[in-house]
Structure formats: C-alpha cells, structure tokens
Amino acid sequence: MSASSPAELTSPGHGGGLRDIRQSRFLLKLLVRKELKVRYRGSVLGLLWSYVKPGVQFIVFYIALGVFLGLERSPRNPEGLPNYAVYLFSGIVLINFFSEALGNASRSIVNNGNLIKKIYLPRELFPVASVWVSAVHFFPQLVVLVAGCLLAGWHPNVFQLLAAVAGFAIVGLLATGLGLLFGSANVYFRDSENLVDMLLMVATWASPVMYAWSMVEEKLGAAWFAVYQANPITIGVELFHYAFWFPTTDGTTAMPPNLFTLWTPLGLVIALAVVILGQYTFRRLEGRFAQEL
Amino acid sequence: MVNAIEVSDISKQFVLRHTRSIKEAVVWLAKGRKGDLSEKFHALKNVSVEVRTGETVALLGLNGSGKSTLLKHISGVMLPDSGTVRTRGRVAGLIEVGAGFHPDLSGRDNVFLNGAILGMTEQQVKDRFDEIVEFSEIGQFIDTEVKFYSSGMYLRLAFSVAVHTDPEVFLIDEILAVGDEPFQRKCIDKIQELARDGKTLVVVSHDLDLVSRICDRGILLEHGNVTFDGPIHEAVSILRA
User: Fold this and answer.
1) Picking from A1-10, A113-122, A123-132, which range would have the lowest pLDDT averaged per residue?
2) B93 and which of A7, B75, B87, B168 could share a cystine (Cβ 3.0–4.6 Å)?
C-alpha cells in the first residue's frame, strides 16, 4: 500500500494519518458507495427512509414543543418564535447529521475489525467514510428543509448561504475529530460507544435546536452563556438558523451577539483542534488495533 | 540482488486476556494494581529474516509457532514491540481471501472494492477486470450478490482479485486450498508464474508437498523462534522428522 518507488525500503504499517486519505480517494469512494448500497438493502422504501424518519421526528417535535409547549408564535402567544417549524427543522437536520456521523464513526473501526486484522490500509478511512456517508444522507433532508423554507418565503443573501456552509463545516469537522477519538478508543473499551450515545442525547438539548438561545441567556447569565455558546454544535445550529430560518422572518428577532466576529471563528478553531486531538489519539492507538480487535 | 524484505530482531508480545470494560480496569486500579490484568506470551522472539527480491520462501511450523504473526508484521497489519521491519515496493497479502468482501454487494462491486483494499487504483481495476472475471470462471454470475455464491465461487473470485493486484511482494497465508482440484492447479500455476516473473513470495502453509513445489527456501519457526533457515527440502524433512 505504500506508494513509494520500488527502489527504497520502507517500514510497513506506519501511515501518514489523514493525509493518506488523499492517496486512497478511490477506496474511500468505494467504501462510501458500499455503505450507501448496503444501508437500505431489502427494504421497500429504500432511500425514502432518509426522508420519512426526519419527517416523522419533525412532526412529533413540532406538535409537542411548538403547539403544546407554546414555542410557536401565534395570536394568542406573541412571545413565541415566528416560523417555529423552519426554526426547528433547520436545527434538527444538522443534529441528525452530527449524530449519525459520530455514532457510525465511533463504531466503524470495530465493525471493520475483520478487515483491519488482515490487511493493512489507512484505517482513518473508516471513520472518514462514516462521516461522508452521513453527509450524503444529510442531503435529502437539506432538500426538504429548503423546500419548507421556500414555502415560508425564504430569500437568503450570499452571506447567509456562506453561514450555512460554515455551520456544516464546523459540525462535520467536529464529528470527524470525535469519530477518530472514540472510534479508536472503542477498540480498547467498548464503553466508548455507549458514552457516545449518551453524548449525542445531550448534544440535541445542549444547543438551541428546540428552544431559542435567548431563553438560555436569560436563565444562565452572561458567563455561563459564554460556555454554552462555545459549543461548536451550538454555533453550527445558530449559523443554520441564520441561513435558513432568519431570512423567512421579518428580521426583527435578534441573533446571538458576536456570532460572526467571535463565535464562528472560535467554533472552527475548536473543531480543528478536536480533529488534531482525534488524529493524535488515533495514531497512538492504531498500532495495536490488529491484536486488540 | 537487493533485499525485498528485511526483518531485523523483532519481538512481539501478545496479551491473552484483556479487559474490555473501564469498570474492570478501575476495580483493578482501586485494588492497588494487584495481580495482572492480563497474561502475556511471546509470539515472536528476536526474529531476523532477510528475503531477497525474487526469492520464494515458505514459513513452516506447527500451529501457534508465529508464522502468521510474522506475515502480519511484514504486511504492516501489526507493528513489532521492538526491532524493525522494512519492505521494498508494494506488498500485497493474499491473507485469508475474501476478507474485504461484502455479501450484499454484487461480484462486480466486490472486485472493485477488494481491488482497492489491496491497493489497486481505479484504472488498474478497470484494465484487469475482464482478466479477473475470466480467471475466476464466475462468468454470468458476476452481477449476482456474493451471498448467493457457492463457497467455491466465492473463494475463486477472491483469489482471482488478489492474484491480479500485481505487487512486488506477495504474502500468501494458507489459501491454496481454493476450490476444486482443477482450479487449485490453476492457482498454483499462477503462483509459479508469478515466481518466474521475479516476484517475491512468502508462503505460509501446512501443505508441505505443495510448499516444496512452489518455494526454494524454507524457514522453520518454533514458539516464536527461527530454528532453521535453508533449502526447502531440508526444512520439510526436519519438520517431518
């Protein structure tokens, strides 16, 4: 698998980390395609499940939170959020992407144990392929979201579209970094995947997906709100709100202060730091994968 | 002749029983690290082997002597605790054929996936695809899902992909029992053809007659130590004695 010329001796089994992925793009492509083909095998609805599941999830949350708990703005409830349905769904799709990416990446090394035990290949491919597959599944949800936005009178500008890209990038990087970290730790301690499941449950509520960020600031005060705000997923969700929900409203609802000057760059930095940490841990642990699996 | 494989002084310890939960590890720490969390044993002890380009080498020994472990070190799947392993050129393992096969994919998809796993580029797989299918004798079933294949068909296709990856060094672990006798003969012919083309072969097998037909040199392993290294016929007669 080493791409060096036959003239020199090289040490097998020492990968170049995430950089190897570029040389193995063909393999990455095939691994992603395999996952996509295998996912809905033998099911009648097939890829439609990627629409049905988030659709049902959305309806349940919308009725419970928007209608029963009164988060939706209505004549009787002027305090609520306008277009709560769009608000809710734009957060849900991003959280779904993150959950699926991290959940699958954490299990990817153990699930591909058979291969890793027998053939040397850049093992980072497996978590990265998981994130990639989740990005593909994210796409249909994005289509539904955009359709909903258009119905609600969406008219974004370029900056707002860039905000969506930034939010997606932050969450994607975070999932990759954490996936490398928990994926490699899972080989040694299978507790790791349960820890991830728990984290994912917390992640849904620890960012303003269902409720408004202003409620958090009210209850927590400025200092703790800053901690809340430093969560890259929170930043990603707020960027999505800015891109998809904000342009459907009359523009009077305030966005979190310093979202673009402070929090977006900080979110990117944190996500990149997590990728570096994940990569470092992965490389420390991967030498013994073959015998531990 | 230059060396294709240089294994110098490698040792490898294995952990026999290993805890899989944090709870057990914490309990162990709380008890003041009493007792060993795991047992260890040496799979390889100070093993040094040099293989020149174009040599055909058999690794021989009883079960558990460390043959497959050594092969895994050469392929890079495992890293030694001490010592170094160095190889020249692309190394491909015909280690347990079909490891990268997915039962729900068609034969065609699996050829591409497996080829890529074994280090082929997209172009290489495309160029050799017809050859691979022809060699495997799968014929019209190539677009059928692999889970419907008979075990013989499965192995034939897997072997065919592996043998067409065209690396400089081939590692072969106990896979020569492929399919029925005609196909087995065809595989052995193919391997001998590779040897004639100047490929380096390292073979692990318990089939001593077969090994002495393919290889020139035999390395005998016992409990992780090299006990003999020389012409294949002497190695086989020592093992049979």
Assistant:
1) A1-10
2) B75
Residues of B in contact with A7 (CB under 8 A): 88
Identify residues of B whose CB sits under 8 angstroms from chain A CBs: 3, 6, 14-15, 18, 20-23, 25, 72-79, 84-91, 93, 95-96, 99-100, 102, 104-105, 109, 112-113, 116-119, 121-122, 168
* Distance separating alpha carbons of residues B155 and B94, to the nearest angstrom: 11
Chain B residues closer than 8 Å to A292 by CB: 18
| Residue A277 neighbours by CB under 8 Å, 6+ apart | A177, A181
Radius of gyration for the alpha carbons in chain A, expressed in angstroms and rounded: 21
Residue ranges per structural domain of chain A? 17-292
What tokens were used for B197?
Answer: 């083309």
Sheet holding B3-15, edge to edge: A9-10, B82-88, B3-15, B40-52
Complex ipTM value: 0.83
More confident of the two residues A292 and B138:
B138
Query: Which stretch of A18-22, A227-231, B27-31, B35-39 has the lowest confidence by average pLDDT?
Result: B35-39
- Asked whether the beta carbons of residue B77 and residue A117 sit closer than 8 angstroms, the reply is yes
Supply the DSSP symbol for A190.
Answer: T
User: Cβ separation of A119 and B75 shorter than 8 Å?
Assistant: yes
**Range B3-240 classified under CATH 3.40.50.1000:** no
What mean pLDDT is reported for chain A? 88
Tell me the pLDDT tens digit for each residue of A253-285: 888 888 899 999 999 999 999 999 999 999 989
Q: Do B91 and A26 touch (CB under 8 A)?
A: no
Helix (H) or strand (E) holding B187: helix B181-196
Question: Which one of B40, B113, B117 makes the best mutation probe of the A interface by having the most chain A beta carbons within 10 Å?
Answer: B117
* Contact residues, chain A, for B109 at CB < 8 Å: 30, 33-34, 37
Contact B77 A288 (CB under 8 A): no
Q: Which residue of B has its CA nearest to A187?
A: B20
| Tokens found for residue B154 | 């499965």
What span, in angstroms and rounded, lies between the C-alpha atoms of A16 and A13?
A: 10
What is the spatial distance between Cα B184 and Cα A85, in angstroms, rounded to a whole number? 64
Categorize the per-residue pLDDT at A2 as very low, low, confident or very high, splitting at 50, 70 and 90: very low
Measured over the CA atoms of residue A132, residue A137, residue A142 and residue A147, the dihedral's sign is positive
